[in-house]
Hints:
Fusion Protein Consisting Of Minor Coat Protein, Glycine Rich Linker, Tola, And A His Tag, Chain: A, Domain 2; single chain; two-stranded antiparallel sheet; elongated; alpha+beta
Amino acid sequence: MELKKNPKADLTANSGLYFAIGLALVLFLTWQGIEWKQYEKTEYDIQALNLDDDLDEEVPITEQLKTPPPPPPPAAPEIIDVVEDEEEIEETVIESTETDQDEEIIEVEEVEVEEEEVDVDVPFAVIEDVPVFPGCENASDKRACFNQQMQKHIRKNFRYPEIAQELGIQGRVAVLFTIDKDGSITNVRMRGPDKNLEKEAARIIGKLPKMTPGKQRGRAVRVPFSIPINFRLQ
């Protein structure tokens, strides 16, 4: 005869569920036991604050020191003594500078003041009376005649330096000189590319004749004059 088990009487049917519930309950109790804290009770005696002792203390009374007022300024003397000045002051009489009609008037003769002559350089382009080159005394335009005679004098006395020719040196020499108040040639200056050319230009200017000096307002003056001399090899 076989024994038959009732499925409702099977104890292992929900064993897994019961095990999980029991494990959760044990873990919860364990956690509560770890987190549980117990504090000791202490007794505090609350005493009332006694304010009567503090109120009985006496506060000293302070008095304000009064400083005496400053003394009044000394009064001015009522009686003023007048001191007489014994020194006598001499009065000065200012005489009038006005002349009476009866007084004679002395006439003073006029004194002529001689003007000192001052050396003034007047350029050739602006001078009133230009210097007169010999041979231009009767020319109507003495300025143009002066320039023509200067060019003629340079061509007549021109000589090319042999050293400059051999070296092939050429160029322009600027010559500046002054026609003095007596008509002589002074203060000759040259500027050129070579000393030999400058020396030849000085020789040509040195042969200029004495001229009639230039005049400004009727007075002889010094007249600066400049002219270029060209040296060209052919």
